[in-house]
Design a protein that fits this description.
Number of helices: 3
Oligomer: single chain
Helix content: 55-70%
Length: 63
């Protein structure tokens, strides 16, 4: 559901259903799904940018 389809009342009703930390967990899950779905594209773009500016990040998790 796009944000433009959310009326203020519906948005408030959704937010009211979540405790603060539940809402954080819910939003993080969505963020993780987005990152997972686009991970290859994100990494490729980061590598292109690093090549362009001639820098490298030393991160064992990255390699």
């Amino acid at each position: 559901m796009d944000e433009e389809h959310l009326t203020p009342e519906l948005r408030d009703a959704i937010i009211d259903r979540f405790e603060a930390w539940d809402l954080v967990d819910f939003l993080m899950l969505k963020t993780e799904q987005i990152v997972d779905a686009f991970e290859d594209v994100i990494v490729d773009n980061l590598e292109d940018i690093m090549d362009y500016v001639n820098i490298r990040v030393k991160d064992e998790d990255y390699e």
